[in-house]
């Protein structure tokens, strides 16, 4: 078969509403940025509501003792995050090879949210820990496939000089998802609604995004079949050949470890240290996340826009990580609820700038333009892996800390602060980006 010229391919793509492979527009298409923001918001609403609130209380409802609940929560969230770790880069790589007439990314976005919706419903109705575990693994795999495919459209649709601004807008979706989930949970009294309502909203927003997305479409199947070696290659990269990519991965991993550690055990921290009941803890988390979101709403767009204007990414990532360290340390020693809320606001201030600029920086260190989704998926392992490691090691660190004058949760949050500090320092190992 005769290959079309780039110009002819682009023309054909334009007539069908799809983008030709390898082309980036001079300006961001109308409707793309709010559409991508909406699908990210939906995914984070569905995924982070359980991580922040719903799953802890679901596990508490089906566990015999508080100690058993802590271990069970670590098990469910830890194993589930491993599935997220696998699904994100794998789905990204498969979407890079997808030759559907519907485009490379659309079917992954829509299919993932529908599978996720079913998984959330199963968690809501079951009384079995093991069913919760299996369903949460399905949810993590499906929703991370959505994230991989959706965020892989960024280099296709947005010029490099505008990616900081778009990344800043996308960065806001994380705190908005957290806040939206906390807000919903205050009005939802049963487990089924707490899991299904956010997932249903995510499904609607995904449908809207795939309708407006002018997706890339591969006209020809890849020359090579998807081999076992390529499967395992979906999760690795060569840090010697691509050192900037490696340091970017480590920076993200360490900073997100501190962030993930806050999210998972905050409900137990509130009920144990401050003696709050379930409803009071939910209300406090909502207020704390309102403060965090307000700070992120300021720092995310400002960080993204300033990094575009100044032409530098690393200082914003380093400062953001340092601010998060201050917030984590304050959270660890908080004597009262007011101080805890202030600490969450400080963490949000740093996280907003980090999440906005980090994605823009990542798109500038990708090793291979032909494997955009795969490489972004590898970077997203640095988001998912802390969510697995943190819950897995937290019970041990909390238990060790409980035997010291510091206390279990104080020790845990101070540990998270040290790890996040390492990430803030390591960003200056990246040499190819200012």
UniProtKB/TrEMBL annotation:
<feature type="transmembrane region" description="Helical">
    <location>
        <begin position="412"/>
        <end position="430"/>
    </location>
</feature>
<dbReference type="InterPro" id="IPR036259">
    <property type="entry name" value="MFS_trans_sf"/>
</dbReference>
<dbReference type="InterPro" id="IPR020846">
    <property type="entry name" value="MFS_dom"/>
</dbReference>
<feature type="transmembrane region" description="Helical">
    <location>
        <begin position="195"/>
        <end position="213"/>
    </location>
</feature>
<feature type="region of interest" description="Disordered">
    <location>
        <begin position="1"/>
        <end position="31"/>
    </location>
</feature>
<feature type="transmembrane region" description="Helical">
    <location>
        <begin position="36"/>
        <end position="57"/>
    </location>
</feature>
<feature type="transmembrane region" description="Helical">
    <location>
        <begin position="69"/>
        <end position="87"/>
    </location>
</feature>
<feature type="transmembrane region" description="Helical">
    <location>
        <begin position="166"/>
        <end position="189"/>
    </location>
</feature>
<keyword id="KW-1133">Transmembrane helix</keyword>
<feature type="transmembrane region" description="Helical">
    <location>
        <begin position="340"/>
        <end position="363"/>
    </location>
</feature>
<dbReference type="GO" id="GO:0005886">
    <property type="term" value="C:plasma membrane"/>
</dbReference>
<keyword id="KW-0812">Transmembrane</keyword>
<keyword id="KW-0472">Membrane</keyword>
<feature type="transmembrane region" description="Helical">
    <location>
        <begin position="249"/>
        <end position="270"/>
    </location>
</feature>
<feature type="transmembrane region" description="Helical">
    <location>
        <begin position="282"/>
        <end position="304"/>
    </location>
</feature>
<feature type="transmembrane region" description="Helical">
    <location>
        <begin position="316"/>
        <end position="334"/>
    </location>
</feature>
<feature type="transmembrane region" description="Helical">
    <location>
        <begin position="108"/>
        <end position="125"/>
    </location>
</feature>
<feature type="transmembrane region" description="Helical">
    <location>
        <begin position="384"/>
        <end position="406"/>
    </location>
</feature>
<feature type="domain" description="Major facilitator superfamily (MFS) profile">
    <location>
        <begin position="35"/>
        <end position="434"/>
    </location>
</feature>
<feature type="transmembrane region" description="Helical">
    <location>
        <begin position="131"/>
        <end position="154"/>
    </location>
</feature>
<protein>
    <submittedName>
        <fullName>Multidrug resistance protein MdtG</fullName>
    </submittedName>
</protein>
<dbReference type="Pfam" id="PF07690">
    <property type="entry name" value="MFS_1"/>
</dbReference>
<feature type="compositionally biased region" description="Low complexity">
    <location>
        <begin position="1"/>
        <end position="25"/>
    </location>
</feature>
<dbReference type="InterPro" id="IPR011701">
    <property type="entry name" value="MFS"/>
</dbReference>
<dbReference type="GO" id="GO:0022857">
    <property type="term" value="F:transmembrane transporter activity"/>
</dbReference>
């Amino acid at each position: 078969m005769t290959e079309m010229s780039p110009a002819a391919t682009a023309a054909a793509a334009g007539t069908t509403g799809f983008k030709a492979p390898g082309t980036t527009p001079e300006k961001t298409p109308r409707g793309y940025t709010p559409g991508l923001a909406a699908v990210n918001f939906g995914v984070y609403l569905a995924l982070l509501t359980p991580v922040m609130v719903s799953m802890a209380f679901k596990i508490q409802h089906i566990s015999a003792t508080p100690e058993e609940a802590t271990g069970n929560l670590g098990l469910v969230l830890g194993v589930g995050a491993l599935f997220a770790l696998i699904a994100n880069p794998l789905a990204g790589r498969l979407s890079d090879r997808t030759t559907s007439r519907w485009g490379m990314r659309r079917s992954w976005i829509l299919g993932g949210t529908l599978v996720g919706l079913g998984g959330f419903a199963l968690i809501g109705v079951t009384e079995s820990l093991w069913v919760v575990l299996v369903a949460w693994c399905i949810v993590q795999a499906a929703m991370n496939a959505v994230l991989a495919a959706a965020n892989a459209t960024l280099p296709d649709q947005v010029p490099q000089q505008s990616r900081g601004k778009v990344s800043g807008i996308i960065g806001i979706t994380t705190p908005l998802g957290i806040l939206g989930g906390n807000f919903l949970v205050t009005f939802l009294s049963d487990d089924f609604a707490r899991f299904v309502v956010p997932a249903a909203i995510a499904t609607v927003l995904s449908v809207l995004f795939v309708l407006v997305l002018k997706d890339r479409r591969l006209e020809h199947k890849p020359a090579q079949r998807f081999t076992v070696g390529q499967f395992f290659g979906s999760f690795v990269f060569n840090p010697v050949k691509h050192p900037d990519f490696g340091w970017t991965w480590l920076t993200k991993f360490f900073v997100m470890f501190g962030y993930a550690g806050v999210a998972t055990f905050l409900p137990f921290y509130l009920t144990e240290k401050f003696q709050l009941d379930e409803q009071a803890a939910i209300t406090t988390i909502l207020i704390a996340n309102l403060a965090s979101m307000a700070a992120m709403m300021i720092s995310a767009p400002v960080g993204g826009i300033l990094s575009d204007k100044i032409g530098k990414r690393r200082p914003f990532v380093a400062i953001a990580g340092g601010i998060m360290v201050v917030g984590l340390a304050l959270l660890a020693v908080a004597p009262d609820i007011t101080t805890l809320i202030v600490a969450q606001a400080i963490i949000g201030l740093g996280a907003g700038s980090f999440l906005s600029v980090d994605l823009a920086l990542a798109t500038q260190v990708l090793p291979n333009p032909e494997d955009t989704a795969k490489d972004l998926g590898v970077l997203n392992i640095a988001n998912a892996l802390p969510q697995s490691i943190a819950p897995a090691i937290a019970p041990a660190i909390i238990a060790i800390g409980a035997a010291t004058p510091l206390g279990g949760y104080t020790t845990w949050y101070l540990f998270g602060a040290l790890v996040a500090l390492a990430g803030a320092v390591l960003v200056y190992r990246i040499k190819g980006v200012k």
